[in-house]
Design brief:
This protein is an alpha/beta fold. It contains nine helices and 22 strands. The chain has two domains: 190 residues, FAD/NAD(P)-binding domain; 114 residues, FAD/NAD(P)-binding domain (3-Layer(bba) Sandwich). Its cofactor is FAD.
Protein backbone atom coordinates (compact mmCIF):
# COMPACT_ATOMS: atom_id res chain seq x y z
CA UNK A 1 0.00 0.00 0.00
CA UNK A 2 1.30 3.44 -0.90
CA UNK A 3 1.46 6.47 1.35
CA UNK A 4 -2.07 7.60 2.23
CA UNK A 5 -2.68 11.33 2.18
CA UNK A 6 -6.07 12.39 3.48
CA UNK A 7 -7.19 15.96 2.80
CA UNK A 8 -10.11 17.62 4.59
CA UNK A 9 -11.93 20.55 3.03
CA UNK A 10 -12.13 21.75 -0.58
CA UNK A 11 -12.14 25.50 -0.18
CA UNK A 12 -9.53 27.78 -1.73
CA UNK A 13 -6.74 26.25 0.38
CA UNK A 14 -7.81 22.60 0.36
CA UNK A 15 -8.55 22.38 -3.36
CA UNK A 16 -5.33 24.20 -4.25
CA UNK A 17 -3.31 21.82 -2.08
CA UNK A 18 -5.02 18.74 -3.54
CA UNK A 19 -4.30 19.67 -7.13
CA UNK A 20 -0.77 20.82 -6.36
CA UNK A 21 0.10 17.69 -4.42
CA UNK A 22 -1.33 15.42 -7.12
CA UNK A 23 0.84 17.16 -9.74
CA UNK A 24 3.99 16.99 -7.61
CA UNK A 25 3.44 13.30 -6.80
CA UNK A 26 2.24 12.00 -10.14
CA UNK A 27 3.67 8.62 -11.11
CA UNK A 28 4.35 7.84 -7.44
CA UNK A 29 2.70 5.29 -5.20
CA UNK A 30 0.68 7.86 -3.26
CA UNK A 31 -3.03 7.71 -2.53
CA UNK A 32 -4.68 11.14 -2.20
CA UNK A 33 -8.25 11.35 -0.91
CA UNK A 34 -10.12 14.63 -0.52
CA UNK A 35 -13.17 14.77 1.75
CA UNK A 36 -15.59 17.68 1.44
CA UNK A 37 -19.11 18.18 2.76
CA UNK A 38 -20.56 19.24 -0.60
CA UNK A 39 -19.87 18.33 -4.25
CA UNK A 40 -19.24 21.87 -5.44
CA UNK A 41 -16.62 24.55 -4.84
CA UNK A 42 -17.88 27.55 -2.88
CA UNK A 43 -16.72 31.02 -3.89
CA UNK A 44 -16.67 32.32 -0.36
CA UNK A 45 -15.49 35.71 -1.63
CA UNK A 46 -18.94 36.13 -3.20
CA UNK A 47 -21.30 35.00 -0.43
CA UNK A 48 -22.42 38.58 0.16
CA UNK A 49 -23.65 38.56 -3.44
CA UNK A 50 -25.58 35.34 -2.84
CA UNK A 51 -27.19 36.85 0.26
CA UNK A 52 -28.27 39.89 -1.77
CA UNK A 53 -30.10 37.66 -4.26
CA UNK A 54 -27.60 37.20 -7.06
CA UNK A 55 -27.16 33.88 -8.85
CA UNK A 56 -23.58 32.71 -9.33
CA UNK A 57 -22.06 30.01 -11.56
CA UNK A 58 -21.63 26.58 -9.97
CA UNK A 59 -18.28 24.80 -9.97
CA UNK A 60 -18.41 21.03 -9.66
CA UNK A 61 -15.49 19.60 -7.67
CA UNK A 62 -15.32 16.54 -9.89
CA UNK A 63 -14.73 18.82 -12.87
CA UNK A 64 -12.14 20.90 -11.01
CA UNK A 65 -10.25 17.72 -10.05
CA UNK A 66 -10.54 16.16 -13.51
CA UNK A 67 -7.25 14.83 -14.79
CA UNK A 68 -5.75 14.37 -11.34
CA UNK A 69 -5.33 11.28 -9.19
CA UNK A 70 -7.30 12.82 -6.32
CA UNK A 71 -10.20 10.73 -5.06
CA UNK A 72 -13.17 12.86 -3.99
CA UNK A 73 -15.46 11.73 -1.17
CA UNK A 74 -18.50 13.89 -0.39
CA UNK A 75 -19.06 13.54 3.35
CA UNK A 76 -19.14 15.70 6.48
CA UNK A 77 -16.18 15.31 8.82
CA UNK A 78 -17.26 14.89 12.44
CA UNK A 79 -14.02 13.96 14.21
CA UNK A 80 -10.27 13.58 13.85
CA UNK A 81 -8.23 11.19 16.00
CA UNK A 82 -4.72 12.54 15.68
CA UNK A 83 -3.21 9.72 17.74
CA UNK A 84 -4.88 6.87 15.83
CA UNK A 85 -4.48 8.77 12.52
CA UNK A 86 -8.10 8.37 11.56
CA UNK A 87 -10.90 10.69 10.48
CA UNK A 88 -14.63 10.02 10.84
CA UNK A 89 -16.90 11.40 8.12
CA UNK A 90 -20.58 10.46 7.82
CA UNK A 91 -19.96 7.52 10.16
CA UNK A 92 -17.09 6.07 8.10
CA UNK A 93 -13.52 5.92 9.45
CA UNK A 94 -10.71 6.90 7.09
CA UNK A 95 -7.11 6.06 7.97
CA UNK A 96 -4.20 8.23 6.88
CA UNK A 97 -0.42 8.41 6.99
CA UNK A 98 -0.43 12.19 6.47
CA UNK A 99 -3.36 14.51 7.03
CA UNK A 100 -3.85 17.88 5.30
CA UNK A 101 -6.41 19.77 7.36
CA UNK A 102 -8.25 22.63 5.60
CA UNK A 103 -11.68 22.76 7.23
CA UNK A 104 -11.52 26.54 7.43
CA UNK A 105 -13.63 28.76 9.63
CA UNK A 106 -17.21 29.68 10.47
CA UNK A 107 -18.99 32.62 12.06
CA UNK A 108 -17.52 33.45 15.45
CA UNK A 109 -19.82 32.46 18.31
CA UNK A 110 -21.52 35.26 20.24
CA UNK A 111 -24.43 35.21 22.71
CA UNK A 112 -27.71 35.21 20.81
CA UNK A 113 -26.09 34.78 17.40
CA UNK A 114 -28.38 31.85 16.75
CA UNK A 115 -31.32 34.26 16.75
CA UNK A 116 -29.99 36.43 13.92
CA UNK A 117 -28.79 36.09 10.34
CA UNK A 118 -25.34 35.84 8.75
CA UNK A 119 -23.68 35.00 5.46
CA UNK A 120 -20.67 33.06 6.75
CA UNK A 121 -21.57 29.87 4.86
CA UNK A 122 -23.48 28.99 1.68
CA UNK A 123 -26.45 27.71 3.68
CA UNK A 124 -26.52 30.82 5.87
CA UNK A 125 -26.24 33.10 2.85
CA UNK A 126 -29.19 31.36 1.21
CA UNK A 127 -31.28 31.69 4.38
CA UNK A 128 -30.48 35.42 4.50
CA UNK A 129 -31.29 35.71 0.80
CA UNK A 130 -34.74 34.19 1.40
CA UNK A 131 -35.38 36.49 4.37
CA UNK A 132 -34.41 39.58 2.36
CA UNK A 133 -36.70 38.49 -0.45
CA UNK A 134 -39.59 38.47 2.05
CA UNK A 135 -38.66 41.80 3.63
CA UNK A 136 -41.22 44.53 3.17
CA UNK A 137 -40.32 48.13 2.37
CA UNK A 138 -39.12 49.99 5.44
CA UNK A 139 -37.93 46.96 7.41
CA UNK A 140 -34.79 47.92 9.32
CA UNK A 141 -31.57 46.06 8.54
CA UNK A 142 -28.70 46.08 11.05
CA UNK A 143 -25.30 44.71 10.01
CA UNK A 144 -23.19 44.27 13.15
CA UNK A 145 -19.49 44.20 12.31
CA UNK A 146 -17.41 46.70 10.35
CA UNK A 147 -14.84 44.37 8.80
CA UNK A 148 -14.74 43.38 5.15
CA UNK A 149 -17.68 41.00 5.49
CA UNK A 150 -19.89 43.57 7.22
CA UNK A 151 -19.06 46.35 4.76
CA UNK A 152 -19.67 44.14 1.72
CA UNK A 153 -22.97 42.84 3.10
CA UNK A 154 -24.27 46.28 4.08
CA UNK A 155 -23.43 47.89 0.73
CA UNK A 156 -24.73 44.96 -1.30
CA UNK A 157 -28.05 44.98 0.53
CA UNK A 158 -28.40 48.76 0.39
CA UNK A 159 -27.71 48.83 -3.34
CA UNK A 160 -30.06 45.97 -4.22
CA UNK A 161 -32.82 46.98 -1.77
CA UNK A 162 -32.88 50.79 -1.51
CA UNK A 163 -36.30 50.48 0.18
CA UNK A 164 -34.67 48.96 3.28
CA UNK A 165 -32.94 51.30 5.75
CA UNK A 166 -29.51 49.81 6.55
CA UNK A 167 -27.34 50.51 9.59
CA UNK A 168 -23.72 49.35 9.88
CA UNK A 169 -22.37 49.09 13.43
CA UNK A 170 -18.64 48.75 14.06
CA UNK A 171 -16.56 48.50 17.19
CA UNK A 172 -13.93 50.95 16.00
CA UNK A 173 -13.69 53.70 13.44
CA UNK A 174 -15.12 52.79 10.04
CA UNK A 175 -12.32 51.37 7.87
CA UNK A 176 -9.66 52.28 10.42
CA UNK A 177 -7.20 49.81 8.87
CA UNK A 178 -7.32 51.60 5.51
CA UNK A 179 -5.32 54.54 4.16
CA UNK A 180 -7.05 57.95 4.47
CA UNK A 181 -8.02 58.06 0.78
CA UNK A 182 -9.68 54.65 1.01
CA UNK A 183 -11.50 55.63 4.22
CA UNK A 184 -12.85 58.78 2.59
CA UNK A 185 -14.11 56.85 -0.43
CA UNK A 186 -15.72 54.25 1.83
CA UNK A 187 -17.58 56.93 3.78
CA UNK A 188 -18.74 58.66 0.61
CA UNK A 189 -20.07 55.40 -0.77
CA UNK A 190 -21.97 54.51 2.40
CA UNK A 191 -23.45 58.00 2.51
CA UNK A 192 -24.48 57.73 -1.15
CA UNK A 193 -26.26 54.44 -0.43
CA UNK A 194 -28.01 55.91 2.59
CA UNK A 195 -26.31 53.56 5.05
CA UNK A 196 -26.30 54.86 8.60
CA UNK A 197 -23.11 54.11 10.53
CA UNK A 198 -22.66 53.55 14.24
CA UNK A 199 -18.98 53.67 15.19
CA UNK A 200 -17.31 52.75 18.46
CA UNK A 201 -20.16 50.37 19.27
CA UNK A 202 -19.20 47.13 21.02
CA UNK A 203 -21.81 44.42 20.51
CA UNK A 204 -22.30 42.22 23.57
CA UNK A 205 -25.11 39.97 22.38
CA UNK A 206 -27.82 39.57 19.77
CA UNK A 207 -31.56 39.26 20.15
CA UNK A 208 -34.28 38.61 17.57
CA UNK A 209 -34.95 42.37 17.78
CA UNK A 210 -31.39 43.56 17.12
CA UNK A 211 -28.11 43.81 18.99
CA UNK A 212 -27.32 44.91 22.55
CA UNK A 213 -24.25 47.09 23.07
CA UNK A 214 -21.85 47.12 26.00
CA UNK A 215 -23.81 49.88 27.76
CA UNK A 216 -27.08 47.99 27.41
CA UNK A 217 -28.42 49.97 24.45
CA UNK A 218 -30.55 47.99 22.00
CA UNK A 219 -29.82 48.67 18.35
CA UNK A 220 -33.27 47.77 17.12
CA UNK A 221 -33.72 45.98 13.79
CA UNK A 222 -36.27 43.88 11.98
CA UNK A 223 -33.44 42.00 10.29
CA UNK A 224 -30.27 41.83 12.44
CA UNK A 225 -27.23 40.37 10.67
CA UNK A 226 -24.08 39.19 12.46
CA UNK A 227 -20.77 39.91 10.73
CA UNK A 228 -18.65 39.89 13.85
CA UNK A 229 -15.76 37.77 12.65
CA UNK A 230 -14.77 34.16 12.15
CA UNK A 231 -13.44 31.32 14.25
CA UNK A 232 -11.66 28.18 13.10
CA UNK A 233 -13.60 24.93 12.87
CA UNK A 234 -13.39 23.34 16.38
CA UNK A 235 -12.68 19.81 15.12
CA UNK A 236 -8.90 20.34 15.10
CA UNK A 237 -8.72 21.54 18.69
CA UNK A 238 -11.00 18.68 19.77
CA UNK A 239 -8.55 16.28 18.14
CA UNK A 240 -5.81 17.41 20.53
CA UNK A 241 -3.82 19.51 18.05
CA UNK A 242 -2.13 22.46 19.77
CA UNK A 243 -4.33 25.46 19.01
CA UNK A 244 -4.41 29.20 19.61
CA UNK A 245 -7.33 30.90 21.42
CA UNK A 246 -8.90 31.48 17.99
CA UNK A 247 -9.13 27.72 17.53
CA UNK A 248 -6.48 27.82 14.79
CA UNK A 249 -3.78 25.14 14.87
CA UNK A 250 -0.24 26.30 15.62
CA UNK A 251 2.05 25.38 12.70
CA UNK A 252 5.67 25.79 11.67
CA UNK A 253 7.01 27.43 8.50
CA UNK A 254 6.11 24.31 6.48
CA UNK A 255 2.51 24.41 7.77
CA UNK A 256 3.01 21.30 9.93
CA UNK A 257 1.26 21.09 13.28
CA UNK A 258 3.69 21.80 16.11
CA UNK A 259 2.19 19.00 18.20
CA UNK A 260 1.55 16.45 15.39
CA UNK A 261 4.05 16.78 12.50
CA UNK A 262 2.14 14.23 10.41
CA UNK A 263 -0.67 16.83 10.14
CA UNK A 264 -0.44 19.82 7.81
CA UNK A 265 -2.85 22.66 8.51
CA UNK A 266 -3.60 25.31 5.88
CA UNK A 267 -5.91 28.22 5.20
CA UNK A 268 -8.09 29.76 7.90
CA UNK A 269 -7.44 26.80 10.20
CA UNK A 270 -3.72 27.60 10.57
CA UNK A 271 -2.10 29.88 13.15
CA UNK A 272 1.09 30.80 11.32
CA UNK A 273 3.58 33.63 11.42
CA UNK A 274 3.56 35.73 8.28
CA UNK A 275 5.71 38.61 7.05
CA UNK A 276 7.11 40.71 9.86
CA UNK A 277 6.18 38.03 12.40
CA UNK A 278 2.51 38.98 12.26
CA UNK A 279 -0.06 36.13 12.23
CA UNK A 280 -1.56 35.43 8.82
CA UNK A 281 -5.09 36.76 8.51
CA UNK A 282 -7.99 34.52 7.57
CA UNK A 283 -8.34 35.13 3.85
CA UNK A 284 -7.98 33.65 0.40
CA UNK A 285 -4.74 35.68 0.15
CA UNK A 286 -3.31 33.55 2.96
CA UNK A 287 -5.04 30.26 2.17
CA UNK A 288 -3.72 29.55 -1.30
CA UNK A 289 -0.04 30.31 -0.53
CA UNK A 290 -0.20 28.13 2.60
CA UNK A 291 -1.55 25.35 0.37
CA UNK A 292 1.44 25.70 -1.99
CA UNK A 293 3.83 25.59 0.97
CA UNK A 294 2.26 22.51 2.55
CA UNK A 295 1.96 20.59 -0.72
CA UNK A 296 5.53 21.42 -1.67
CA UNK A 297 6.92 20.37 1.70
CA UNK A 298 4.97 17.11 1.83
CA UNK A 299 5.91 16.19 -1.73
CA UNK A 300 9.55 16.94 -1.00
CA UNK A 301 9.53 14.71 2.08
CA UNK A 302 7.94 11.86 0.16
CA UNK A 303 10.44 12.09 -2.69
CA UNK A 304 13.66 13.03 -0.85
CA UNK A 305 13.75 16.47 -2.45
CA UNK A 306 14.50 19.85 -1.01
CA UNK A 307 11.27 21.82 -0.39
CA UNK A 308 10.78 24.96 -2.45
CA UNK A 309 11.22 28.20 -0.55
CA UNK A 310 7.81 29.83 -0.75
CA UNK A 311 6.69 32.57 1.60
CA UNK A 312 3.36 34.26 2.14
CA UNK A 313 3.14 37.98 1.43
CA UNK A 314 0.25 40.35 0.85
CA UNK A 315 -0.48 42.74 -2.00
CA UNK A 316 -3.96 44.18 -1.52
CA UNK A 317 -7.32 44.14 0.20
CA UNK A 318 -10.22 44.43 -2.24
CA UNK A 319 -13.63 45.44 -0.87
CA UNK A 320 -16.83 45.36 -2.90
CA UNK A 321 -19.18 48.27 -2.24
CA UNK A 322 -22.12 46.90 -4.18
CA UNK A 323 -21.95 45.98 -7.85
CA UNK A 324 -21.09 49.48 -9.08
CA UNK A 325 -18.29 50.48 -6.71
CA UNK A 326 -15.35 49.07 -4.80
CA UNK A 327 -12.13 50.09 -3.10
CA UNK A 328 -8.78 48.32 -3.40
CA UNK A 329 -6.26 49.06 -0.69
CA UNK A 330 -2.72 48.15 -1.71
CA UNK A 331 -0.61 46.90 1.20
CA UNK A 332 2.95 46.06 2.16
CA UNK A 333 4.15 42.48 2.36
CA UNK A 334 3.13 42.38 6.04
CA UNK A 335 -0.35 43.73 5.27
CA UNK A 336 0.07 47.38 6.25
CA UNK A 337 -1.77 49.96 4.11
CA UNK A 338 0.11 51.90 1.47
CA UNK A 339 -1.01 55.31 0.26
CA UNK A 340 -2.00 53.79 -3.08
CA UNK A 341 -5.70 52.94 -3.47
CA UNK A 342 -8.00 52.14 -6.37
CA UNK A 343 -11.67 53.13 -6.34
CA UNK A 344 -14.75 53.25 -8.56
CA UNK A 345 -15.25 51.21 -11.75
CA UNK A 346 -11.56 50.34 -12.00
CA UNK A 347 -11.69 48.84 -8.51
CA UNK A 348 -14.85 46.92 -9.44
CA UNK A 349 -13.03 45.33 -12.39
CA UNK A 350 -10.00 44.62 -10.19
CA UNK A 351 -12.11 42.84 -7.55
CA UNK A 352 -14.00 40.88 -10.19
CA UNK A 353 -10.72 39.79 -11.75
CA UNK A 354 -9.50 38.57 -8.34
CA UNK A 355 -12.66 36.50 -7.83
CA UNK A 356 -12.41 34.96 -11.29
CA UNK A 357 -8.68 34.32 -10.87
CA UNK A 358 -9.34 32.55 -7.58
CA UNK A 359 -11.59 30.01 -9.29
CA UNK A 360 -9.16 29.63 -12.20
CA UNK A 361 -6.24 29.13 -9.82
CA UNK A 362 -7.83 26.31 -7.83
CA UNK A 363 -8.45 24.47 -11.11
CA UNK A 364 -4.81 24.66 -12.21
CA UNK A 365 -1.46 23.61 -10.84
CA UNK A 366 0.12 26.76 -9.47
CA UNK A 367 2.52 28.43 -8.98
CA UNK A 368 4.44 26.39 -11.58
CA UNK A 369 4.33 23.07 -13.37
CA UNK A 370 6.48 20.61 -11.41
CA UNK A 371 9.09 18.28 -12.79
CA UNK A 372 8.26 14.55 -12.63
CA UNK A 373 8.72 13.21 -9.11
CA UNK A 374 11.29 10.65 -8.13
CA UNK A 375 10.28 7.29 -6.78
CA UNK A 376 8.80 7.92 -3.30
CA UNK A 377 10.81 6.97 -0.26
CA UNK A 378 10.03 6.90 3.44
CA UNK A 379 13.16 8.60 4.75
CA UNK A 380 11.61 12.04 4.59
CA UNK A 381 8.17 11.25 6.01
CA UNK A 382 6.90 13.39 8.89
CA UNK A 383 8.13 12.00 12.18
CA UNK A 384 6.01 11.79 15.31
Amino acid sequence: MGHRVLMLGAGYAGLTAARRLAALLRRTDTEITLINDRPDFVERLRLHQVAAGQDLPSHDLADLLSGTSVRLRVARVSAVDAEARTVVADGTAFAYDTLVYALGSAAAPMPGAGDVWNAASPAAAMRLRDRLARAGAGERVLVAGGGLTGIELATEIAESRPDLPVTLATGGELGDWLAPAAQRHLRRRLHHLGIRTREGVRIERFTPDGAVTGDGTLLAADLPIAATGFRANPIAAAAGLDAAPSGQVAVDAAMRSLSHPDVYVIGDAAWANGPGGRPLRMSCSSGMPTAWIAAGDLAARLTDRRPSRLRVRYFHQAISLGRSDAVVQFVTADDRPKRAVLTGPAAVRYKEALCRTGVWAVAHDLPARPKPAKRPTTSGLPAR
